[in-house]
Amino acid sequence: MAAREAHADVRVLPPLLFLVPLAIGLVAGRRVRLRRWAGPRRVLAGALGAMAAGLFGWATATMLRAGTNPEPWVPAAALVTDGPFRRTRNPIYLAYTLAYLAIAIWRGSWATLALLPTAVRLTNRLAIEPEEAYLRQRFGDAYQRYAERTPRWLPAGEPVPQHRLRGRVVGRKTR
């Protein structure tokens, strides 16, 4: 198969890697729920859900604007490194994680929260690793440089150059 026709060897629909543990946790945790702090829990869950939806939409729109498809079984037309991809290599999977957390917190389900690391491990192994192998093969050094400066999961801020820190106290200039 030519490199242009190749695609990531992802054999499972990535959302299922979150939905299956989520469903198992919700069923298993029906009887044992966090019943306290329902109001604050729902506010937190709503905020996480809104962040998940916003991040998912932003990442998908960024990929489509770059002319590439977000589905991992479709060949990548471009290496996307702007928008949310400047801060994390996997903003869509991060959005799935935020949505999972939102549902688990909303429901007050300890069992669901306990299964989140399983969903993340499955996603790393069955989706991200094959995608990264494909992107390394497809884009070579450009992908390697991108992977070295951009974290896989959690966003990183821009480092502040040391020369800008000298002579400053947080929030104000010194003499």
Please characterize this protein's 3D structure.
The chain has 175 residues and is mainly α. 59% of the residues lie in helices and 2% in strands. The protein contains 6 helices and 2 strands. The chain has a two-stranded antiparallel sheet. Helix 1 (14-28) runs antiparallel to helix 4 (110-139), helix 3 (91-107) packs antiparallel against helix 4 (110-139) and helix 4 (110-139) packs antiparallel against helix 5. Mean pLDDT is 85; it is low at 160-175.
Assign the structural class, choosing from mainly alpha, mainly beta, alpha/beta, alpha+beta, or little secondary structure.
Answer: mainly alpha
Mean pLDDT: 85
Helix content: 55-70%
Shape: elongated
Span between termini: 65 Å
Based on CA atoms alone, the radius of gyration comes out at: 19 Å
Strand segment count: 2
- Enumerate how many helices there are, as a single number: 6
Tell me the layout of helices and strands.
Elements: H1 14-28, H2 38-65, H3 91-107, H4 110-139, H5 141-149, H6 162-165, E1 168-169, E2 172-173
Helix pairs in contact: 1-3, 1-4, 2-3, 3-4, 4-5
